Amino acid sequence: MKSLSKSCATAALVALSGFALYGCRSSATSAGAGDAASTRSELEIPRLTLTRQDVEAITKIDLTRPDHDAGGKLQTITLEKRDEAWQITAPIRAVASVSKVHELLENLSLVSVRLVVDESDRYYDDFDLTEPKALHVVAWKGKDKLRDLFFGKTDVRGQITRVSGVRGVFAVTNRGPGGYSGFLFTRNLRSWRETSILNFQEDDVIQVEVTNKHGYFSFLRDGDRWAGSRTRRDLHGQLGKADSAWSAFDETKVGDLLRNYRSLGADDFGEDYDRSASGVDSAEEAGGVIRITLKGRPDPLTIRVGKVSTRQTPWAIKGNRWAVQEGRIDTLFVLSPYTADWAVADASRFERTHERVGGSDAARPRPLNSAKGD
């Protein structure tokens, strides 16, 4: 029995030793295969990630893709860095949204190839990687191309991509915080424009002025309070003498106006050919002018509001009005009706809606743009 037990123990030890040796060989083989695969990937998969220095050196970005609103015709939107600011230089010239450009650059720096889909160029059309179908992104450093990429279809492998100058079809990671985000590259022209017009703190305002066909309204800050005066126009449209004894004036309305203008943004934009009919150059007759003076700033922030816009776009709202900001006179904006109405308002817009009359509280509703009380 002892001999049999000893034999069994020896056999078990030999078996275990053999399994351990096999395991070591298997591990060594796997490690070798992994090294080979890693070397192969380094040779075949383009490295696309950009360093922070690379991103900061980018001076121009071309975004070309089919414009489906124009029957699939290719449109190139060009963003260029000028004096540390970003501008749209094609197909129009306008101020670009810095935050949106930075979002694009940040995402472009993270783009990385995760696998090779095909090593040839025969499937470019199938994956929408040809010029007429793809989103073509070119990032420039001066006259040199830092990146030249084509983005096509998306499937379970990721965002299908082509790298200019490299034969093959690749899949780019498009999931997670480091993945390619296509919506950052495919904004329409309007969305690339800077929509911000004004940005100030209400507490910094010391005077607000409104001039329109109804007259001239001036509101001066007195500590935490507002004092208002109005000047009526005569039958010939000329301004008369200021009336500071404006008993119906409601200072809370000045706060309402400022809340609408402190972070003023454009709803849409006009073209050069819209300017002549917009009325912004004769704003005091066609719409109104709002001037907001800030402490420590000699020149007021001035918005000239013109006629009602007849522009037909997906963002058009009935009652939208054309507007420009002095100092940015080359950019024609469209303002929402409620915001624009402060510029064209009559006196009632700045008055209490209920006023004590003859010792009793009597409701005196005042229409938004009624001439009554002017």
Element layout with pairings:
Layout: H1 2-44, H2 52-57, E1 60-67, E2 73-82, E3 85-90, E4 94-95, H3 98-110, E5 113-118, E6 135-141, E7 144-155, E8 158-163, E9 169-172, H4 189-192, E10 205-212, E11 215-222, E12 225-233, E13 239-243, H5 252-261, E14 268-269, H6 275-278, H7 283-286, E15 288-294, E16 301-308, E17 321-325, E18 333-335, H8 337-344, E19 354-357, E20 360-363
Antiparallel strand pairs: 1-2, 1-6, 2-3, 3-4, 5-9, 6-7, 7-8, 8-9, 10-11, 10-15, 11-12, 12-13, 14-18, 15-16, 16-17, 17-18, 19-20
Report on this model:
The protein has 374 residues and is of the alpha+beta class. The protein folds into 2 domains: 52-192; 202-363. The protein contains 8 helices and 20 strands. It has helices at 2-44, 52-57, 98-110, 189-192, 252-261, 275-278, 283-286, 337-344, and strands spanning 60-67, 73-82, 85-90, 94-95, 113-118, 135-141, 144-155, 158-163, 169-172, 205-212, 215-222, 225-233, 239-243, 268-269, 288-294, 301-308, 321-325, 333-335, 354-357, 360-363. A 9-stranded antiparallel β-sheet has the order 4-3-2-1-6-7-8-9-5, with no helix packed on it. Strand 8 and strand 9 form a beta hairpin. The termini are far apart.
